[in-house]
Design brief:
The chain has 3 helices and 18 strands. It is mostly beta strands. It has 4 domains: 57 residues, OB fold (Dihydrolipoamide Acetyltransferase, E2P) (Beta Barrel); 61 residues, Beta Barrel (OB fold (Dihydrolipoamide Acetyltransferase, E2P)), CATH 2.40.50; 57 residues, Beta Barrel (OB fold (Dihydrolipoamide Acetyltransferase, E2P)); 66 residues, Winged helix-like DNA-binding domain superfamily/Winged helix DNA-binding domain (Arc Repressor Mutant, subunit A). The model has no long low-confidence stretch (mean pLDDT 91).
Length: 278
């Protein structure tokens, strides 16, 4: 079955004045690829990657445009117009994405960016957007997540203690500000690493690898800075946490683990107010 809101590989089945009609291999359901998306190297029988969505007349249509998000995904989109039925966002296709007023967590303004979830509305059978994100996120681990796992993050909010992130387009998580070596912005995408899942199922995320891998990676950071500084740095496990974060880009807790590992490997010696390369 041809899936609405998804990029998929379809076969060029037949040609008509308005464009190519595409089908799934082994299927008979057709969708039109309009002339404006057809390139000279396309031929009957070719398999091509297309995105399928509804045109302005609510007809299913294929496109070679690359959308900013697909069905059941999240993205940071700009509102280009607001009228009596809702707000419209640019999502990388010829037709803008509608966010009806009922799907807005607060009134959206033209020219501003918002985190948007796109889904297939069961009543209208149309792709629509929503900024009411809570109901589209899993707020507890479902048992498929593991400590140390690398994940994709999208920042969708900020509170006093941390940055609210969407994990792998599915889960809600938190990056603590006192453990982050950078200031994250809403709409920013980055990689993260899962911390141990909390007893209540909530998910915390680190921006640096967890455990042994983290120490190894950051050991090189410290050694590189030691070499660049001539073999001595005025930092120790007694140093100010903010100074450590500003200079090395990670927390004091991690810094202490790193220099402890380097000390055990006999690569540095630790003095009261400094570390030295051996």
């Amino acid at each position: 079955m041809i899936a609405l809101g998804k990029t998929q590989q379809l076969k060029i089945h037949r040609e008509m004045p308005q464009g190519f009609y595409l089908i799934e291999e082994g299927g008979d359901e057709e969708v039109l690829l309009p002339q404006r998306f057809i390139s000279d190297d396309m031929e009957i029988g070719d398999l091509i990657d297309v995105f399928v969505y509804c045109d302005s007349n609510d007809r299913d249509m294929a496109s070679t445009e690359i959308p900013l998000l697909e069905v059941d995904e999240f993205a940071y989109l700009k509102v280009t117009n607001v009228n009596e039925i809702g707000a419209f966002c640019n999502w990388g296709t010829s037709k803008e994405l509608l966010i009806p007023f009922r799907n807005q967590s607060r009134p959206l303004k033209e020219g501003y960016y918002y985190i948007v979830h796109m889904f297939l509305d069961e009543v209208s059978d149309r792709l629509v957007g929503s900024t009411k994100l809570k109901n589209f996120l899993e707020h507890e681990s479902d048992g498929t997540l593991e400590m140390g796992q690398e994940v994709d993050l999208l920042v969708y909010g900020s509170i006093d203690i941390g940055y609210k992130v969407i994990i792998n387009n599915t889960f809600a998580g938190l990056v603590y500000k006192n453990e982050s070596h950078i200031n994250l912005q809403i709409g920013q995408r980055t990689k993260g690493y899962l911390k141990p899942i909390r007893e209540d199922g909530k998910i915390d995320v680190s921006l640096t690898p967890i455990g042994h891998k983290s120490i190894e990676g950051n050991e090189q950071v410290v050694m590189d800075k030691l070499v660049a500084a001539g073999g001595m740095l005025p930092f120790s496990d007694k140093s100010d946490p903010e100074k450590i974060r500003k200079y090395f880009g990670f927390s004091k807790k991690l810094f202490k683990k790193v220099i402890g590992g380097l000390y055990k490997k006999k690569l540095i010696k630790i003095e009261k107010e400094s570390i030295h390369k051996i």
